[in-house]
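Structure ticket #2291
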Amino acid sequence: MTNPTQPEPPTLAAATAMFVEVLVVGIGALTAAVLLLIALIGPVPTAKLAPIAGSSAAAAVGLAAAYAVGILVDRAADTILTPHRRRLRTHYFPSNTAYAQARLRLADMPVLAARADYARSRMRICRGWTLNTLALALTADLAMLRYSIEHRPLILGATSTLGIATAFGFYRAWRALTVTGYRKLAEQTALPPAGQPVPAQPQPNSVSP
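Resolution: structure written out below.
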């Protein structure tokens, strides 16, 4: 009889996590795109389109669009940060070969590999939102320029400052997660000296039948 508490297969869990990551990043990017559209068309057309935007069909299209845009933003953020990520990696792995071998050794440790995947998931979200927050701050400022609001300079300044500070926070979180991931990977996959027994791997908590 199948245990109802049995965890889902790793491949399914990884695919689900990836979908959620891309969607979380894409929702922020799509929001920035909507703000840019508002800035371009102005208040009157925006008011006319508001009822359509609240429909179920628009929500479904928006979800699909968020996923597609999330893929683009994730790839863009990865391309921008790749040189920095590689410099951080050289502190723990002298070559690409050493890093690839460590990843292969980690794959033989299911519990540690699952933890590493979770850390990389958070890292990718922080990476994407580094760009998202900058885009949201910029498009929000552009949208507010089309509307008559009180204390506009003060609000624009606050929005820009908050956006830059939040983007920097996401960048710092991405960097900390990346460094920690490389350090743990190096420690967990380091080969013991000759003659020394290999330490036992941590085992997942057992589930009572």
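Closing remark: The radius of gyration is 22 Å.
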